[in-house]
Q: What sequence folds into this?
């Protein structure tokens, strides 16, 4: 799988990513975008 945040599109290898399911697909989200998802800002 491509190591890329589906929210911000970053693929910085130094950053931490977490797996998640979005629109029925498994994707990665970086920890910087995780609070955005949790608080539902999008
Ligand atoms: Zn991100």
A:
């Amino acid at each position: 799988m491509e190591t890329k945040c589906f929210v911000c599109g970053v693929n910085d290898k130094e950053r931490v990513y977490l797996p998640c399911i979005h629109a029925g697909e498994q994707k990665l989200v970086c920890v910087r975008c995780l609070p955005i998802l949790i608080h539902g800002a999008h």
Notes: Helices lie at 34-39.
